[in-house]
Design brief:
- The chain is mainly alpha-helical.
- Helices cover 31% and strands 0% of the residues.
- It contains one helix and no strands.
- The chain is elongated.
């Protein structure tokens, strides 16, 4: 299993302001709360929509 230390100098050297090429950027969505009156499929669709909005927006 591959494990990368996220705060290590290999990812972001101390004298640089941008991560090295190939570094994965992680976007955190706002907290997702299940709607107990909706079906699981409806909740999954809502979550997927939120994820796609971030992806499509290029954030």
């Amino acid at each position: 299993m591959f494990e990368q230390k996220l705060d290590g100098p290999k990812v972001m050297p101390r004298d640089k302001h941008l991560p090295k090429s190939g570094t994965i950027r992680v976007e955190v969505l706002p907290s997702f709360k299940c709607d107990h009156s909706a079906s699981v499929d409806e909740d999954v669709d809502r979550l997927r929509g939120a994820m796609m909005a971030v992806f499509d927006g290029g954030l």
